Amino acid sequence: MKFKVLTLFPENLKSSLDYGVIGRAQKQNIIDIEYINPRDYSDNNYGSIDDKPYGGGPGMVIKADPLLKAIEFAKGRASETCPVVFLSPQGLLFNQKKAESYAKLKDLILVSGRYEGIDERVIELTENALEISLGSFVLSGGEIAASAMIDSITRLIPGALGHEMSALQDSFTEDLLDYPHYTRPELFRNISVPKVLVSGNHHEINRWRLKQALGRTYQRRPDLLEQRQLSDDETVLLEEYLEELSS
Going by C-beta distance under 8 Å and a sequence separation of 6 or more, which residues neighbour residue 197? Predict the structure, then answer.
């Protein structure tokens, strides 16, 4: 998969994506990340691409012309149907389902905003444009959001993780939070690993893990369960979890 990221700070973003899972995925040619700086399309010698907002107010706004030229350059190196994602707090909420759908694409263009925002006409003039948000908060720029999306999407691409099942067990897969994890030693500061995990009974281990995932989701993110149709077995497990919690 090919990511094309428009950012005013390509070196900063690159330095955070050249390590770990994303770094290995690039070395193995599972993904490719191209950084495009809108400053390269500025119409002045200073590389300035921002100006004061019409109507007054604080801050600066990224100008339409250099940003749109940078997007058009990126689109010229991508498939005709490639989505152009503007990272914005006004956008649709990014989640695991969207990550899964993006992981199936051939390429994806990510536009990192800065300052007070970008000239709205850029979005209006861009085909296949959509706005995506990480949550109900504001960042200084879209680079952090771009990095998070690339990481989330890449780990779902076959071959990116060391174990093929790792991504399938992540939180939010199947609209459930992850179950608790433990490793050695078995006893740590008078807290023992749950006995079922050292029993060797894989059926009971899987049952316990699903019960914990259901219970955690019920306690911490009940909104996820509201949009998920529980099976009869899952309903029983959740009831068991709540009974154990109250006992």
Answer: 182, 205, 208
Three-state DSSP state, 88: strand
Catalytic (active-site) positions: 89, 116, 155, 170
Amino acid (1-letter code) at residue 193:
V
Q: Radius of gyration of the chain from Cα atoms? A: 22
**CA 161 to chain CA mean position, Å:** 16
pTM: 0.86
| Contact status, residue 37 vs residue 8, Cβ threshold 8 Å | yes
- For the chain, list the domains and their CATH numbers: 2-154 (3.40.1280.10), 171-246 (1.10.1270.20)
Tens of pLDDT along 161-199?
A: 976 555 555 555 578 998 999 999 999 999 999 999 999
Q: Which of 50, 57, 66 is nearest to 115 (CA)?
A: 50
